Amino acid sequence: MLGEDDNDRQAIRILVAALRRDIGRGGLKPLRVPPALVRNVPPDRLPRHADKVRGILNAFAVATPIRAVLMHEDADDVEPAHEAVSAKIEQAFRLLPWPVYPVVPAWEIETWWFLFPEAVRQVCPGWRPLSPYAGRDVGQIRNAKQELTRALTPAGARKSTFRAYSEADSVQIAERIVALGQPAPPWFARSKSWLAFLVAVDAL
């Protein structure tokens, strides 16, 4: 697994292992490099960047055989922006000797947490419920991380005493999703980038 943030990589690893118990967490190896895949790489530099990634993976494969590569990168935009980023990943790394599966949340992984209100609530009972987002197309939420932080903060909360959402909470949220047996979202909010993630995991 490659990705731009360790918290996101670990959360995705937890979700993939729950969705594919035949693989499990032990079969998913997060790598800390490279820090970026394609989104901020100019087109003329992509071939060289892809060669660098190939070198990293080849070095890893000396000790641990690789079957497939999951590549996570945020879309930093609303759906369907994830489709263009996914296509760019597939194109840039098409010459790798392993199948490549993009994992691209719309805007950020926090978009997906809106799909799992109970899992989020269990991480910190003091957070506000996400019930106002029921039925929404959460893939259209802009600046998902900031929106989630705002949505979870009660009115009048004091910064000195209130525990606000942080990126590190993604790992706990993923753990709660699995503990609740909810890899499929439990309400009617929806996200095309989440569905694309499920398709990729199924294809692994």
Architecture overview:
The protein is mainly α. Helix content is 43%, strand content 4%. The protein contains 8 helices and 2 strands, in the order ααβαβααααα. It has a two-stranded parallel ribbon. Helix 1 runs parallel beside helix 7 and helix 5 crosses helix 7.
**What's the alpha carbon Rg, rounded to whole Å?**
17 Å
Structural class by secondary-structure content = mainly alpha
In total, the number of strands is: 2
The biggest beta sheet, please? Answer: 2 strands, parallel
The percentage of residues in β strands lies in under 5%
The secondary-structure element order is HHEHEHHHHH
C-alpha termini separation: 12 Å
Strand order of the largest sheet: 1-2
Task: Please tag this protein with its features.
204 residues, mainly alpha
Please outline what is shown here.
Helices cover 43% and strands 4% of the residues. By secondary structure, it is mainly alpha-helical.
